[in-house]
Design brief:
Elements lengths: L15 H13 L19 H14 L15 H9 L7 E3 L6 E3 L3 H12 L5 H18 L3 E3 L8 H6 L19 E6 L3 E3 L5 E3 L5 H6 L1 H16 L6 E3 L3 E6 L8 H12 L4 E4 L5 E4 L9 E5 H5 L7 H7 L6 H13 L27 H20 L9
Antiparallel strand pairs: 1-2, 3-4, 4-8, 5-6, 7-8, 9-10, 10-11
Helix pairs in contact: 1-2, 4-5, 5-8, 9-13
This protein binds zinc ion.
């Protein structure tokens, strides 16, 4: 319900947000002649135009003791009458504290829809709870509905790899979005009034507000961040990179590349480490016998099956060429899901996998096989995304 928080009138408190709300009412409600009560613009400052418009409104509608004085208070007859005369769909006007950009309160239905979308999005359980709590408290405090941007939830490795470098420098496995710990939480259908009373329905990123009224735009994000980053929600922003993004961990407390390397090592048989840079590169031991890691290139290249790996590096790592028989035997054991027994499945001696062959010399087919195996490590890391943990 449209209301004000303090007195509006000559020499009164005239909180900017209160004055702006009154001005918007006086723009939306028409005189008997069919023109708005307020001819000036909505700017949140009380002046003679605003005073004259309030006086004219009170004269016509309220007839209370303040007629002629142009003074109105919280929950008083004048603001109640204004609220009752607002057009359908514009009944509940709000403004952020200290701000003059008036907007229409989001509906409970829009809030429910936004939360429903979160419930069906793949995020870690604790992050999902936090995001829902941010949405709820933003609504409780300011009647603003927040919601996920398009592709703002968990992104697959392929989706991350497809983003242009202008959008993000993070490769597949390097963004919180891959691990269900990051979300792009913007504004759902925020409708705000320009100074001349025209209504604008903005997009998730508030692009209209950004283009025309930058200081107001920033204020909306400030308020969202105040809700998101303070207890009990305690989420983190990356404001200098992307205003819309929220995440469960602070960038200063964990390393995206070291966390990815640790996760790759954890879910597979090969050992990985991160080489920081732009882009980060990843080194791997290729499961080799030499206990040494070699540079395999960026996350994007490895994920796309195009690791930058040379014959020399494969030799250095001591990679062992799997024989097709050995892999067939391993596959068989995998499929029947039993430990090899000395007696074997069919009463005969169990097949003994042939020894893996020495790796020299490395052929083009070997390099292709290593690239595929490196890619498979990333595929496995993605399949087990829920097991990712932050590493400092
Ligand atoms: Zn993001």
């Amino acid at each position: 319900m449209t209301n004000i928080s303090g007195l509006v009138g000559s020499l009164k408190a005239n909180n900017k947000s209160d004055v702006a709300i009154v001005q918007t009412c006086l723009k939306l409600i028409k005189t008997s002649a069919g023109s708005p009560f307020l001819s000036g613009s909505i700017d949140g400052s009380f002046g003679k135009n605003t005073k004259a418009a309030i006086v004219a409104f009170q004269d016509k509608y309220t007839g209370d003791a303040n007629v002629g004085a142009g003074i109105m208070g919280a929950g008083g007859a004048t603001i109640k009458k204004m609220a009752s005369l607002l057009p359908i769909g514009k009944k509940d006007l709000r403004a952020l504290p200290g701000q003059s950009r008036v907007y229409i309160a989001g509906s409970p239905n829009a809030l429910a829809q936004s939360k429903l979308k979160i419930s069906t999005t793949a995020l870690t359980p604790s992050f999902k709870l936090s995001i829902n709590a941010v949405i709820q408290s933003m609504y409780d405090k300011h009647k603003v509905v927040l919601g996920l941007a398009v592709k703002g939830g968990r992104r697959t490795f392929a989706q991350q790899a497809a983003l242009s470098s202008a959008v993000t420098k993070a490769g597949p496995g390097e963004s919180n979005h891959q691990w269900g710990n990051g979300a792009d939480l913007g504004f759902v259908g925020l409708q705000w009034f320009k100074g001349n009373g025209a209504l604008v329905t903005d997009d998730t990123w508030l692009e209209n507000l950004r283009k025309t009224q930058y200081s107001h735009y920033i204020k909306f994000w400030d308020v969202r961040d105040a809700v998101a980053t303070k207890p009990p929600n305690n989420l983190f922003t990356i404001r200098t990179l992307e205003l819309i993004h929220l995440q469960a961990y602070s960038n200063s407390n964990y390393s995206a590349s070291r966390s990815l390397a640790a996760h790759l090592t954890n879910v597979g048989d090969w050992t990985w480490s991160a080489i920081p840079g732009g882009p980060n590169r990843y080194a791997c031991n290729l499961g080799g016998a030499n206990n040494v890691v070699v540079d395999c290139g960026s996350a994007k290249k490895i994920f796309q099956g195009n690791a930058s790996i040379t014959a020399k590096e494969i030799e250095t790592a001591g990679w062992i060429r799997p024989t097709s028989l050995a892999s067939a035997a391993a596959e068989l054991l995998d499929d029947i899901d039993v430990k090899p027994s000395p007696i074997g499945m069919f009463g005969a001696a169990a097949p003994t996998p042939p020894p893996a062959s020495a790796s020299l010399p490395i052929t083009a087919a070997d390099i292709a096989a290593v690239k595929l195996a490196l890619q498979a490590n990333f595929t496995e890391a993605e399949a087990r995304w829920k097991e990712w943990k932050p590493v400092k």
